Structures are given as structure tokens and as C-alpha cells.
From TrEMBL:
<protein>
    <submittedName>
        <fullName>Ornithine cyclodeaminase</fullName>
    </submittedName>
</protein>
<dbReference type="InterPro" id="IPR003462">
    <property type="entry name" value="ODC_Mu_crystall"/>
</dbReference>
<dbReference type="InterPro" id="IPR023401">
    <property type="entry name" value="ODC_N"/>
</dbReference>
<dbReference type="Pfam" id="PF02423">
    <property type="entry name" value="OCD_Mu_crystall"/>
</dbReference>
<dbReference type="InterPro" id="IPR036291">
    <property type="entry name" value="NAD(P)-bd_dom_sf"/>
</dbReference>
Amino acid sequence: MSKPSKLALVPFVSVDNMMNLVNAIGPARMIAEIAEYIEQDFKRWEQFDKTPRVAAHSDEGVIELMPTSDGESYGFKYVNGHPANMARGFQTVTAFGVLARVDNGYPVLLSEMTILTALRTAATSALVAKYLAPESAGTMAMIGNGAQCEFQALAFQQVVGIHTVRLHDIDTEATEKAARNLQATGLKVVTCASAQEAVTGAQIITTCTADKQYATILTDNMVGSGVHINAIGGDCPGKTELHRDILLRSDIFVEYPPQTRIEGEIQQLDPDHQVTELWRVMTGQVPGRSSPEQITLFDSVGFATEDFSALRYVRDQLERYPHFVDLDMLADPDDPRDLFGMVARAAT
Ligand SMILES: NC(=O)c1ccc[n+]([C@@H]2O[C@H](COP(=O)([O-])OP(=O)(O)OC[C@H]3O[C@@H](n4cnc5c(N)ncnc54)[C@H](O)[C@@H]3O)[C@@H](O)[C@H]2O)c1
């Protein structure tokens, strides 16, 4: 068998290598650095091709493709969301993605993105909170203590400067797991028996639960003035976390309105309800938080540019941290037109 040519090879970051990369850089630093890449890309929002993600729904969950391009690079992520998976021993969310050159269409990176999605979601949440959370917010309630939970807590510690996280999950084992994992971070961790208890004294409330139905993780009476809500888990048609009355009292900030109106908390509102696009806040066109009493809500669903930014970040690390293998992924015949001949010669 002949060896693949250089053009055939695409760097592949496996789960194992992603873990090596995260541990070499340090999870908190990596989240903060991904947040910088995400912010850079939000600030050049108009350069990107944007489309709501392509979703295939079933009774059990959803499989989605998330493409975007800045004209130089093209990226996409494959991701699923299956709330019943955990009980069956599977992850709720798994993902992988590709970054490619636009000029010749050749992929330049193939990467696992289950871990990278948790990092980029946390990075996005914390980045957005930098613009929207009340000044000197020190305590975050974290409702839903599953796979994303510790990444979120770490991101808010590193980027926003919180010192305390108040954990709650309907499954106490999940809370115990998160508390254990967060022990070494220096965060003060308080475990709470109810969502009501968790939000007490918190300036930031993160909801990060998984349920394939309209859920009410927060009711109106639980949300006082001046808080920032980081709503992660409502990210599909029919899958929300907040009571509608909270939305009506909040200033709502979103990634890409055409996608969020389908998938986010605002699917509960009129299609023309006023929302603010985050890229406008980050470019200084409109204010973020404008008063101490205001309730700000990041109606997060996860947008393709954030994955693009995360893939860009990983690609940029590979020279310094060569945690990848080369995959023989692209057929590269000596004569570009002789694809058949290449196959036939391989038989001899
Ligand atoms: N917005 C984004 O960019 C983005 C990115 C990734 C994941 N998500 C979403 O975030 C959510 C969490 O993802 P995950 O990977 O951590 O899922 P997970 O299944 O690992 O964890 C979810 C946790 O929520 C808990 N939970 C369910 N109902 C609850 C309730 N009523 N009160 C308190 N806790 C409750 C479950 O016990 C579980 O521990 C999912 O809905 C996922 O689709 C959003």
C-alpha cells in the first residue's frame, strides 16, 4: 500500500487529544482564550454567512448541522441533543466538527467537539455576562448540574470573577458530582435542595437543564430585579426553561434572532418581540446592561460562529501543542483526474 501524500492528510483532534490539549493549556485559561476568539468573531459579525442551524427532530431528540463561513474559512459542527440519553447511559450532547479552506475547499481540521462544545458554551456565557451581569457579581446559581455545569462555573470564575456557585439539580448525585469536581477550583460551592434556595443571593442565574418539553425551572417570583439570567438549556422548539412572565420583565439578548426565535426561550413570545443582538452590544452600537435594576437575559441557543471560533482556536494551538494525529482523509491522486486509476492501482 502506498503512503498517503501530504495533501491527503488532515489533522484530527480525538477526544483523547482534546483532553490532552485542555490539560496542557489548563481548562480555565482555555475557556478564557476561546472567549476572546468568540468575541473577535462577534465583532466582525457582518463578515459571516449566517443561517439557522439545520435540525432533524425526532421524538427522542434532535440532530443538527451548524455551518458558517467568514469567506476565508468554512466550518460546521454536527451535534445532537437527546435529553433521555443520560438515563440510557449516553451523553445528552455529542459533537464533532470541521474547519476548511474556502479557496480550495480542503478541510484543515477535524475535531471532536463534545468537550469543545462545553468549553465554547461556557466561554460564550461568560463573555456575554461580562457585558450584561451586574458589576461586582460574585455569586452564581447553577441549576442543572450535568455535563456542562463545571465548565460554566469555571468560565464565570475566570472571566467574570465570581467567587461562589450555588448548585441545584433534581438529581442530587449530579450536584454531588459537580461539587466534587469544583472542589479544587477555589470557588465556594454551596449545594441547594431547591432552585428557589439556589437563586437566593445570586446576582447571576444559570439554567442548564435538559428536558424535551416546556419546563419551568424558574418562575417569575424567583427572579428579583438586577439579576442576569444565563439560560442555556432552552435550545429547541418545545424545549424551554423559563416562565414566560420572566421574559416579559427582562431585556433579552440573543445570538442570531432567526435561530433563537425558533429555538430559544423567546419562542414563547410574539415573533416581533424586541430583542437585542449581542454583536451590536459587543461592537458598542447599543448598550449592554444600562441600569442596576434591569433584568438581563441571555437567551442562549448556541450559534455556528461560536463553534467556528472554537475550531479556529484549536487549529491555532496545534503548532505549540501537537495533540493531534494526521488522518488520511482526502483522496489525492497524482493526476487529480485519475481518481479511478488510483483506486485500481491500489488493488495490485
Ligand atoms: N445554549 C447552548 O449553546 C447549549 C450548548 C450545549 C448544551 N446546551 C443545552 O444545555 C442543557 C444541559 O446540557 P448537559 O450536556 O449539561 O445535559 P445533561 O443531561 O448532562 O445535564 C442536565 C441536568 O439537568 C438536570 N435537570 C433536569 N431537569 C431539571 C430540573 N427541573 N431542575 C433541576 N435540574 C434538572 C438533570 O438531572 C441533569 O443533571 C441541555 O438542554 C443542552 O441541550 C445548550
